[in-house]
Every structure is written in structure tokens, then in C-alpha cells.
Specification:
Layout (H helix, E strand, L loop, with lengths): L1 H13 L20 E5 L2 E4 H42 L4 H8 L10 H9 L7 H31 L20 E2 L6 E7 L4 H16 L4 E7 L8 H12 L4 H11 L4 H10 L4 H10 L3 H13 L7 E4 L2 E4 L4 H20 L2
Helix pairs in contact: 1-2, 4-5, 6-12, 7-8, 7-9
Length: about 350
Amino acid sequence: MILRTLALIGLFSAAILPVAAAENSSGSALAAGPVVAEVDGAKLTAADVERKKSGSLFQARNTFYQAQRKAVEEYVDDYLLERRAAREHLTVAQLIDKHVSSTLPKDPSEESLRVYFEGVQTTEAFEAVRPQILEHIRQARLEKAKTAYLASIKNEAKVALLLAAPRVPVSLKDTPLRGGSDAKVTIVEYADFECPACQQSQPGLDKLEAEYKGKVAFAYKDVPLPMHSHAQKAAEAAHCAGTQGKYWEYHDKLFATRQLDVSQLKEHARSLHLDGQAFDKCLDSGAQADLVKAQLAEGQGYQIQGTPSFFINGRFFSGGMTFEQLKVIIDEELGPQGTQTAQR
């Protein structure tokens, strides 16, 4: 089954021509890539599937890439440990014992174990689960110390992951952009103003903007989730503010205050010195509703399952991300020279 899946991914990623190349000068569709199905004699090609199911195919490629990258990273870790062990004339197990296990602190006190036990949901007595608690703590400490040791080895080596990530072009039509249009990295966030995870990610994005000023551009697209009753109108309100040139100021206001009732949306407009009457008319009439719905449909087309989701230079990342996680990706995209510039 896995081999079949990989074969299909390869078929649609390597064998098809870009959609633009699948049309001739007169605009008529040309068959491109291998034929993947026939319906009453009509030949359907890989390019046909790509045009209609590009979101599903992209997510399949991205899932495979994430698994492949994890395997490569693990292999690199093993390689570094084996190389260091050989240099010290040790086995890997002996190396870990020398530089990791021997550095671990003593086992926690009985009092500390009992405090830990109080946070464990179990009907068993402390004495019954004490060995499992102690082993769990030992393993957690071992993994943390091993990760730190591996990081120190990596810092001494020149490690570059050259595995190409799948990318998808994301349109910025009718989408406000914060940062220079010539920025080397563009982050497109699909989010919901009422989404708690989106609100938690915002400080990291703000910090990223400050640290990489001029290097990173930001775009925000609306995916108002059905369980969030205020999200649709909040999204419309931001675009209504955008018609008066203050989309990002309004965007920031919504995340800062988390006040999303219609009356509060209108008050935000006045606090930003917008034309209140024009704003109210825009919001009440639903003038920006179609734009919000179009962005939602676009997100659904990419098979986005939740918010926030990010496309960073076309690379897909799902879920809330910390500043540290975002920074790793941005540094990868900027490359060594761009990273040095950003950190000055």
C-alpha cells in the first residue's frame, strides 16, 4: 500500500506538466503527462487530475515529505553519533553513557515523587505506581539530555538538509500584504479571529516581524470556522477597514482586544479614526462577505483542516507555531546569508 501511494505521488509530481503549459496559444487544453484513466474512451491525464485535485495531491506530497524529512533527520542524528563514537573509540551506547547518562541528576526525592503523583489521574496507590513514575522521569531526563548533546554535536558540524519541500503557489490577489513585496520570505496565514490557537500564535508572528524587518512579508486569509459565531463578521470588518486603508491596524486591534461583537467591531473602527458611517454601511450590508467566503473556499481547496495554517514560501504548516518554530523555517528559507543579515 505504501509503495503504491509513493508511486501515485511520483506520478503526479514528476510526470505532469504545469497547468500553464497544458494550454496552447489558442487556449485549448492539451493532454499532458501520462493517461491515468479512461471514461467511455475519453483519456484523462495526470494534468487533468492536477487541475481539479491539486489540493489533495499537495497534502499527500506534504505528508510524505514530513515523514521523509523525519527519517532523514533521524539518520543524520545516528550518523553524527556513530562518527563521534568512532572518534572516541567507543560504541554509541558507551558514548551516550559517557556524555549523557553520567550527567543526569540524582533521582528525585520521595517528596518530589509524591508531588508528581498528585498530578497523575489514577485510582492506584502511590506505592503501586511509584516505579513507573520514577522510570518516566528518568527517561524524560535522558531524552532531554540526549537532545542537548546532539545539538552540541550538530553545532560543531556543517549540517544542511537538502530534501526539497513540496510547495504550492498561493495567490495574493485581494489580500493585504504587510512588509515589502520584494521580501525573500512570504508567510500566508489562514486563520480565524475568534480562534484561540490563532490568538496564541500572534505574539510569535509580531516578534518575527520585528526581528526580520524587511526580510519577511505577511498575508492573512480568512477561514472563519462554523463553531465561531463572531468570526465571519470580524473578518468582514477587517476588510471593511481595509477599504479605508487600515486593514492591518484593524487586524491588530482584533487580536489585541479579542472583542468581536458587532457593536465592538464598530467601536474599533471609530478608535482607529475610520469613517464610522461608511464602515457601518460596509459591515451591515455584508459588502465584504463574498471576499471572506472566497478565501474560506480557497483554504478548503488546500484541504486545510484547522486554524491557524501557514504557507511559508509555499511550504505548508498546520497548527499554532511558536516564534522558535517559525524562526527555524524562516532561517531555512533565507539561507545563511539572509539569516546573518536578519540577525544584525
